[in-house]
Amino acid sequence: MFRPENAQSFVGLALIILACWAFSEDRKRFPWKLTIGALILQGLLVLALFGVPALRAGLAGVGTAVDGLASSTQAGVAFVFGFLAGGGDQPYQLTNPGAMFVFAFRVLPVILVVCALAALLWHWRILKWVTQGFGFLFEKTMGLRGPPALATAATVFMGQVEGPIFIRSYLKTLSRSELFMLIAVGMSCVSGSTMVAYATILKGVLPNAAAHVLTASIISAPAGVLLARILVPRRPEDETEGEADPAQDKVYESSIDAMIKGTSDGLQIVLNIAATLIVFVAIVAMINGILGLFPPVGGAPLSVERGLGAIFAPLAWSIGVPWKDASAAGSLLGVKLVLTEFTAFIRLGATPIGALDERTRVIMTYALCGFANIASVGMNVAGYTVLVPERRSEVINMVWKAMVSGFLATCVTAAVVGAMPRELFAH
Predict the structure, then answer these.
(1) What mean pLDDT comes out for the span 255-266?
(2) Selection from 352, 357, 311, 358 nearest residue 333 by Cα
(3) I want to staple 370 with a disulfide (CB 3.0 to 4.6 A). Which of 8, 273, 359, 410 is the partner?
(4) Rounded to an integer, what is the distance from CA 157 to the centroid of its chain?
(5) Pick from 112, 68, 103, 67: which is nearest to 85 by CA?
(6) pLDDT class for 86, splitting at 50, 70, 90?
(7) Which contiguous run of DSSP H or E holds residue 391?
(8) Is the distance from CB of 231 to CB of 20 less than 8 angstroms?
(9) Domain layout of the chain by residue ranges
(10) In terms of C-beta distances under 8 Å and separation of at least 24 residues, what long-range contacts does 261-264 make, across chains too?
(11) What is the average pLDDT across 380-396?
(12) Residue 163: is its pLDDT beyond 80?
């Protein structure tokens, strides 16, 4: 049943698209067909995935698979770290079992296992076929050329820098619009490894968490393409055909080689995530310590989180969050942008069930599910410098705009979900 709260989300959709058009590099080339098509495609995907019993059952199966993956990972973690991992017999009496959920032992190891499995599935060509299938879908439904469509699909499963690797030999020939689109889409989605990690974090507070996270990353890709094409419109005259280099395809010598290299790649990702979280959280803690020296405002001390909540509360309301939750939701959006989405998901997972409306929690899951944050700016500059060094200055010139595009793309996805009746997501 549709309610006024669903109409509220259309306000956010209109404002976001209007803002992107206002800052477009060519306002006369507004992609009307793509705008209508992308929003309809997102809506249909949400309705199909949660409204069609067979597909809904498939998404529930994803949740079961994630639970199995997490428990299997814990077996490996317990073997290496013993009782520190929170499993098995503890050498002391627990007074607070909840404190045994340690991020370094429960979430980060899952990324290692998923990266190894992804490499294995790529070697067996299963993941490659899935990626090519999604690439074909993006090519036919959104008018993308073959190479950018393939990279967009790969980004959904592999990550913001890993996805473009699959068309590395084409990168130097892409138009400015296509290159910007790849960077923006990379920040509007998350990788397969982090999808599982986010689902693990939200498992206790969000029913069907794995289904929502998977859906969020997939349907944010069309939103990323849309906003990127509005900000930097396509110019067919700038598009040239490039030649592929088969030697640059991702190849493993055997299944064991795939698992070893996948684990090695995963370790680098885990170290980057852990180091980034430590540094960014520490910096915010220092800022909050300084703000704490000032007199309280509104009966509470000043903090980065309160400031971000005030700034982004209107945006949170416009995508469908009720005003009573807007400050908390706005704070999560700000934390995602400044401190990475991992930190935002951790805070969303730590928010008690009764503290947020159930619909707000669903909407925010979609709004947070993207790599658009300040840390990703550096990752993209570093990654593309290696992949296509001759276009480094061009990447630096557009990466901040791409971050904003990716951030707003997840908000578009959240607004589309907010426009749906809440009964669709009832568990």
Answers:
(1) 86
(2) 311
(3) 410
(4) 10
(5) 103
(6) low
(7) none
(8) yes
(9) 4-89+100-425
(10) 261/119, 262/115, 262/116, 262/117, 262/118, 262/119, 262/120, 263/112, 263/115, 263/116
(11) 83
(12) no
Q: Is 320 left (phi over 0), alpha (psi -120 to 50) or beta?
A: left
pLDDT tens per residue, range 180-224: 998 999 899 887 767 778 888 888 888 888 888 888 888 888 899
Q: Which one-letter DSSP state was computed for residue 166?
A: T
Mean pLDDT, the chain, rounded, equals: 82
Distance CA 212, CA 46 (A): 10
Beta-carbon contacts of 143 under 8 Å, excluding residues fewer than 6 positions away, are 34
Q: Which residue has the tokens 């699909």?
A: 153
Length of the chain: 427
Candidates 233, 159, 136, 126; CA nearest to 148 is 136
pTM: 0.83
Q: Which two tokens stand for residue 405?
A: 């595009």
Percentage of the chain with pLDDT > 90? Answer: 18
pLDDT, average across residues 311-339 = 91
Whole-number pLDDT of residue 421: 83
CB-CB neighbours of 218 under 10 Å: 20
CA-to-CA dists, residue 43 to 32, 215, 268, 283, angstroms: 17, 11, 36, 39
Which residue from 137, 136, 184, 140 is spatially nearest to 163, judged by alpha carbons?
184
> How would you label 123-153 residue by residue, b for 16+ Cβ within 10 Å and e otherwise?
beeebbebbbebbebbbebbebbebbbbbbb
- The burial of 166, by beta-carbon neighbours within 10 Å (0-12 exposed, 13-18 middle, 19 or more buried), is given as buried
Residue/partner pairs of 57-64 with CB below 8 Å, 24 or more apart: 59/208, 59/210, 59/211, 59/214, 59/215, 60/208, 60/211, 62/210, 62/211, 62/214, 63/199, 63/208, 63/209, 63/210, 63/211
Alpha helices in 298-340 (DSSP H): 304-318, 323-339
